[in-house]
């Protein structure tokens, strides 16, 4: 059967969508079947998309589900004229997506040297890889404290993250593993909320220290960053100014960024 497929589809997994949830007019998440042989590390991404004639339409997507879950979960923006997301946002249960089953990425424990506190900085759908990491028991074996920040323009864009935290807190097994180690720090920049401002400004103003208990500390903090190119650049600069070195899979360091999602 697979011999009859156009060349571009060879080795691809065809996965049935099992649920779809729309959060805002700009974001939605969906789950799909997980191939039995598919293994990944928390924080990795895969190329996923839709069949499209001779060549599938693919884009890099972080796997948002934890690596122990039976299904795969993805969290996506909806770009009205985006080649893939304009179609993907209409997914329904039972539809099929395609995935190249070769997960990769730098937002992984292996790319960081040991530390005491893991801080994950995200904006918008940049929270997706961390949705996997904060549900991975290994995260809590490796770190005494875990901080997840997310900055969005509007309050309802934080709903995905809020639901995720609520799910962890109400899960009998996971809540025991996580205990009181996890701090969730959401902010908005346009719509009024309890905590306003970009995280980069919160770091510089001391608000980050106030909320999480300590300023960015290169000796003990390890950092993962995921968001737009501008956001990555600014957070990277803050880490470097603090004396931290960027890590990779081949040479672990004190902070890591992922450029795969920035255009
Ligand atoms: P702002 O509203 O001040 O631009 P976007 O949708 O443009 O990707 O932005 C998502 C969130 O990331 C917004 O809250 C935005 O704040 C924030 N943001 C944009 N650029 C940066 C940056 N360089 N550093 C930190 N946060 C940023």
Description of the molecule:
With 263 residues, this protein is an alpha/beta fold. It has two domains: 98 residues, Translation factors (Elongation Factor Tu (Ef-tu), domain 3), CATH 2.40.30.10; 149 residues, 3-Layer(aba) Sandwich (Rossmann fold). The strands form two sheets. A six-stranded antiparallel β-sheet has the order 4-3-6-1-2-5. It starts with 12 loop residues before the first strand and ends in a 6-residue tail after the last strand. The model has no long low-confidence stretch (mean pLDDT 96).
Q: What do we call the CATH homologous superfamily of the largest domain? A: Nucleotide-binding domain of ferredoxin-NADP reductase (FNR) module
> Ions, cofactors, ligands: which are bound?
adenosine-2'-5'-diphosphate
Estimated radius of gyration: 18 Å
Poorly predicted regions: none
* 3D shape: globular
Q: Count the DSSP helices.
A: 8
The biggest sheet, with number of strands, parallel, antiparallel or mixed sense and barrel status, is: 6 strands, antiparallel
Residue share in helix: 10-25%
Please give the CATH class of the largest domain. Answer: Alpha Beta
β-strand number: 11
């Amino acid at each position: 059967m697979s011999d009859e497929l156009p060349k571009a589809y060879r080795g691809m997994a065809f996965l049935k969508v099992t649920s779809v949830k729309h959060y805002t007019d700009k974001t939605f998440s969906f789950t799909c079947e997980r191939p039995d042989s598919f293994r990944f590390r928390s924080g990795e991404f895969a190329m996923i998309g839709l069949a499209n004639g001779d060549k599938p339409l693919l884009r890099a997507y972080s796997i948002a589900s934890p690596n122990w879950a039976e299904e795969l979960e993805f969290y996506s923006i909806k770009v009205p004229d985006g080649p893939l997301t304009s179609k993907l946002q209409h997914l329904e249960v039972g539809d099929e997506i395609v995935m190249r089953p070769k997960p990769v990425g730098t937002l992984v424990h292996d790319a960081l040297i040991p530390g005491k506190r893991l801080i994950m900085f995200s904006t918008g759908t940049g929270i997706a890889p961390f949705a996997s990491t904060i549900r991975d028991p290994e995260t809590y074996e490796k770190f005494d404290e875990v901080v997840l920040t997310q900055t969005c323009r509007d309050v309802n864009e934080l709903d995905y993250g809020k639901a995720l935290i609520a799910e962890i807190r109400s899960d009998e097994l996971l809540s025991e593993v996580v205990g009181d180690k996890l701090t969730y720090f959401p902010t908005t920049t346009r719509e009024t909320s309890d905590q306003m401002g970009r995280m980069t400004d919160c770091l510089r103003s001391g608000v980050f220290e106030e909320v999480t208990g300590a300023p960015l500390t290169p000796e003990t903090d390890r950092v993962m960053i995921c968001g737009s190119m501008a956001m990555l650049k600014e957070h990277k600069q803050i880490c470097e100014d603090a004396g931290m070195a960027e890590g990779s899979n081949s040479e672990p360091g004190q902070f890591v960024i992922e450029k795969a999602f920035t255009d």
